[in-house]
Amino acid sequence: MDSWSGSCQACGTQGGPLMKFSLGKDFFGRPYDRLSPSSDQNPKWYCTLCSMHKNLQRDFRDIGAEFDKLGVRHGSELSKGDEFRRASLRLQEIMAILRGTQQPSPFLSGHDVTLLMERLNTLTMPV
Ligand SMILES: [Zn+2]
User: Per-residue pLDDT tens for 89-110?
Assistant: First the structure.
């Protein structure tokens, strides 16, 4: 099962080079729980553009999940100053990439990224 003879599983492009996208580590360097169904159960095949967008979505989702942990309980990666800065920078980068691409991302809307950036900005940066 190391080849996929079909099309991109996100946009349906055929004939182009496809890359197997498999979640390894998350944005904060933690391995995904491979037993949970929502994680890395089925590697998918995406064209170059979609796999790039899939990466952006993954980082966006990881940062959003850590943001939700803030204030609810301790142990959010974003309570560390370095990770917080890295996450803010990454969101800006994701936004810039989304603005710069011709087609909308199949996975991520610029609106959602803007919202998360605004929510991050309401926080005081931890030290
Ligand atoms: Zn695609």
Answer: 999 999 999 999 877 899 999 9
Residue 38 lies in a domain: yes
Ligand 1 centre distance from Cα of residue 31 (Å) = 25
Give the gyration radius of the chain's Cα atoms: 16
CA 88 to ligand 1 center in whole angstroms: 27
The helix-helix angle for 48-69 and 110-121 (nearest 10°) equals 30
* Tens digits of residue pLDDT in 62-98: 999 999 988 776 789 999 999 999 999 999 999 999 9
80 CA to middle of ligand 1, Å?
Answer: 35
Residue 62 lies in a domain: yes
In this structure, is residue 1 part of a structural domain? no
Residue with tokens 């994680």: 39
Counted domains in the chain: 1
Q: Is residue 63 part of a domain?
A: yes
Q: Which domain holds residue 73?
A: 18-121
